[in-house]
Amino acid sequence: PIQSNPIQSSENQILVGKKAGQREKASMGDYSRAHVCQCLSRLWSLRPTSTVTIYGERRKTGQQFVEGVLNLAHHLSKLGIVPGNVVAICAFNSDWYLEWMLAVAYLGGILAPVNYRWSFEESRVALEAVRPALIVTDDCCTWLSELQNSTMFSSRWHVTVDSLSSTSNRMENESYAKTCDIPYAKHLSIKYCWAPEDVAVVCFTSGTTGRPKGVTISHSALIVQSLAKIAIVGYTEDDVYLHTAPMCHIGGISSGLAMLMAGGCHVLIPKFEAKLAAQAIEENHVTSLIT
Questions:
Q1: pLDDT value at position 151?
Q2: What average pLDDT is seen over the chain?
Q3: What is the pLDDT of residue 38?
Q4: Using CA atoms in the order 48, 287, 91, 154, what is the torsion angle rounded to 10 degrees?
Q5: In which domain, by residue range, is 51 found?
Q6: How far is CA 158 from CA 60, 75, 90, 152, 201, in A?
Q7: N or C: which end of the chain has fewer CB within 10 A?
C-alpha cells in the first residue's frame, strides 16, 4: 500500500498541490490525520523508563528518545527548516538516524534517504532531483567533498553525524552554533506539521533505467504499511527488533516505524555483518529482524 506522486523540485521545496510552507498542527491526541510522529506520545506515556533503542553501549528509554527527537526538531526549527523542506541523509543505521527521521517529519520536512553504497554520480542525480535544504552525513559518505565542489551543490546546511558520540551532530554553519545554547523545555509538546500533500519520505529507486528516481511516500501510506506489519507479524512492545535492513530502504524504514508504533525495543548496528548481527542477537535477546 505505497502511495506515490511525481516529484517537482523548486527552491529547496517539493511542491505537490498545496502552497509550500503551509503549516498545520495537530494536538497530542489528534489521530484523525496520519503522521509518523504519532508514535511519540505512546513511547512517552507507556514506555518512559523502558529501553527503546540500543546502539552499542548507548541505551535510551522512551522518554529519552522522545526528548531527543523534540530537541533535534527544536534546533532544526531555529535553523530555519520549514514544512516542505527536503532533508537528505546518507548514513549507516544508528539511533540518531531514527531521531532524524522523526524530527524532520515533526517539522513537516521531507526526509530523502540516500543509499550509502551509491557512487558520487548516483548520489548527485538523486540530490539534484530533490534539492535538499540540508544534507546529513556520517563517515560512510565518501562523495561529500566531490558534491560540495560540484556546481549543483545548493544545500544551505550540512550536518555531520558521529554515531558513536554522545553528541548527535555538528553543524557546518555558523548560525547553527547560536541555537545550541537555547534551553529546551523537557515537557511533552506534540504539535507536529505536515509537508504539502502530506509527503513524509522520498525513497529512491533505479527502476529500469539505472538512474535514481524519487518516489514520494505519504504519512498515511507509511502508517498503513506499518499497521499491516504489526497485524501480520504480531509485533508488540515486548519485541526486540534488530535493524539489519538499511534505513535508506523502504523495508528498513517501514519495519522500523512499525516497531516504533508497537513500542518495542530497537537494536541498531551500522550495517549487516554476520558476526555483528549474531552478537547483537545473543546479547540483546532479539526476537525479530528482516534481511
A1: 66
A2: 81
A3: 93
A4: -70
A5: 9-289
A6: 26, 14, 11, 14, 19
A7: C
Please state the domain count of the chain.
1
The answer as to whether 120 is a domain residue is yes
CATH code, domain with 43? 3.40.50.12780
Task: Please check whether residue 124 lies inside any domain of the structure.
Answer: yes
Spans of the chain below 70 pLDDT: 1-31, 151-155, 163-189, 206-209
Q: Give me the pLDDT at residue 153, please.
A: 61
Q: Is residue 24 situated within a structural domain?
A: yes
Residue 4 domain-assigned (yes or no): no
Residue 34 near residue 249 (C-beta atoms within 8 A): no
